[in-house]
Design a protein that fits this description.
The complex is a heterodimer. By secondary structure, chain A is of the alpha+beta class. Chain A has 5 helices and 5 strands, in the order E-E-H-E-E-E-H-H-H-H. In chain B, the strands form 4 sheets. Chain B has a 5-stranded antiparallel beta sheet with strand order 4-5-10-6-7. The chains are: A alpha+beta, B alpha+beta.
Chain lengths: 182, 290
Amino acid sequence: MKPELVTLHINGRTHTLALAPNVTLLHALRDLGYVDVKCGCEQGDCGACAVMLDGVAVNSCLVLAGQADGCQIVTAAGLGSVKQPHPLHEAFADSGAIQCGYCTPGFIIAAKALLDHNPHPTEPEIREAISGNLCRCTGYGQIVEAIQIAAERLASDEGRTTNDESGIRHSSLVVRPTGGAQ
Amino acid sequence: MLPEFDLIRPNTIPDALAILAERGGDAMPIAGGTNVVVDLRSRKHQPRVLVDVARLPGLRGVQRENGHLVIGGGTTISDLLYDPMIAQHAPALREAASVFANPLIRNRATVGGNLADASPAADTAPPLLALDAEVELASLDGIRRVPLVDFLVGVRKTLRRPDELLIAVRFPVPPDGSDSHFHKVGLRKADAISVLSAAVAVTCDAAGRCTAVRIALGALAPRPLRATAAETLLVGEKLTPVAIARAAHLAGEAVRPINDIRGSADYRRQVTEVIVRRLLDKLLSPEASV
């Protein structure tokens, strides 16, 4: 089990590091300081570790870091900055969708994945999209509201999405519902 | 912390098959990792080598080929959900994909992984059984096709040899006059492991008589099974309420469920009959909900 070189493009920065094969993407990210990616259940049940992997929202606890070699990764923090937050960041703050905050980065990623291909989701669609994320402060109502608000703001102010990095909308791997046959 | 293993990332299917041939029982393919990583963590599996097949070219996507739909083993559950050919020809499979785990898992979990893992509760198994699917197993010796019904041998047991990779699952494009549906009973709306699941696929002639009927059931026996007595009863018949009720009763008698934390055997048996009846009803009136 000797370490192997893995290159990860994270929030627009490139890291090349030697990793043991049994390191998950979750722990690789956290060890690099991307601690907005949370370690929850490590079984794919809670969604706290969700990141965008080549434009697709995934649980980073179920991806081996080596499997992500060469991939574009965007974490919740990478969607914007303190100076220029993403509309989802602002909407979560404005709606009080955050209580302890542990689940928040995962919800932001799930919401981002939804809004990328469905800019005007219905409430059931929002609830479906966040069904892989658990909030144990029982804040789902405000989270749904925050995603609705973010969708409205994104629709009325397309320019605010320019913070998006790393070609989230242009992955060759992702299959969009509006796309044709592969 | 995961146990120790080596991770090999071949670039082509032949390279992957060569590694599997060489390392055999020491090696395990990994795609989305939604089962494999969890099982590694719990030490259910302790392979020395993992062979990453998640990004192998030619393993992902749905194609039409000589009257069959061929789904690459590396096709994700999300891919199924968004594929127009699946929506048109395999509504039962699309319905199963829509209630498979949760959206984050669906983006990684693959059809090949779901079948090769061979959980009795695997959600793609009943619809694919109802669609009369075969799996394609590739090794250095070539490709062999095995009917899915034979491939699934028991709990977490399949006919896959250690040197083989499940590269595709294929089924005949259902003829005109066909329809299929799937329903899963879970303890919560999302991210549920099936208490039981059922899929029906039926082809009717112009007069409304069934020319082909397949009914498949999940989490009701050590492996997903076909309710053959119920199927036989319906062939040549119209889908009348009486015929449906009799077939659904036979389906309920075909199952061999267990008591577990998700439900009792008695509950499962009774609900099987109800779900099969509703699925068959739905073939007559598409608007009905199960």
